[in-house]
Amino acid sequence: MRAPRLRVGVLADGENLVDLTRELSAAGHAVHAVTAAADIRDYELVVIAVADDSLAETVVQLATYARRGQMFLHTSLMHGIQIMDPLETEGAIVMCAHPLGEDRWVAAATDELGETIVGLLVGELGGSVIEVDDAQRVELAAAVTYMGYVRTLTQDAVRFLDTFLGDIETSTDIVEAASGRFVPVPRLDSLIRQYESVADPGRQRLFRDLARRQAEISRAQDIELWAIQKEDR
């Protein structure tokens, strides 16, 4: 089922990068930027893409101008659907959606109509809906941030390795290959020698923290205890 083409207003502050302008335009909707709350009356769907700590205030401002049956969708991962209550009270259809990866979206609505609409919109964007309780959203956002740290760590590993190889392409290839296979944790005595050899204080601290986390997962109690003792110093 193809959703009808909509006149969409996007209210974005530049802090939330998920404003859906490009995606909804590519799906055939008429998408326009909204700069003032009073301008939302002209749109069937209003996308709210603002910073997490500005969302509640923005929703209250928009509720002043919302009309019954108008659709509103926020794109914050941190917040669930309850933050849209002021708009729902005015008779609006409220939804939220945020992408996870290429084709999964955390989405929600307050009623069956909203669920159908947000499902159609997400489907148009090539995705499918995952439902997550509002109470779990902040921790889910933490998991996504945690995932981003992996990329940062990977890039730093390339630079660290390149210190010795002097060939960034080779260093990149080695790190990428290692990410797809199991790299065993060395014995504690070897691990300590490696730790002490790391000259950069930031890398040395992260080396210890990662050693502790891997030890927690693999139940290597000697390494975990060593890492804890290092933290306490």
From TrEMBL:
A Pfam family recorded for this sequence: Rossmann-like
Name of the protein described by the UniProt record: Uncharacterized protein
Highest taxon listed in the record's lineage: Bacteria
Location of the Putative oxidoreductase/dehydrogenase Rossmann-like domain: 43-99
CGL2689-like C-terminal domain segment(s): 133-230
Cross-referenced InterPro entries: CGL2689-like_C, NAD(P)-bd_dom_sf, OxRdtase/DH_put_Rossmann_dom
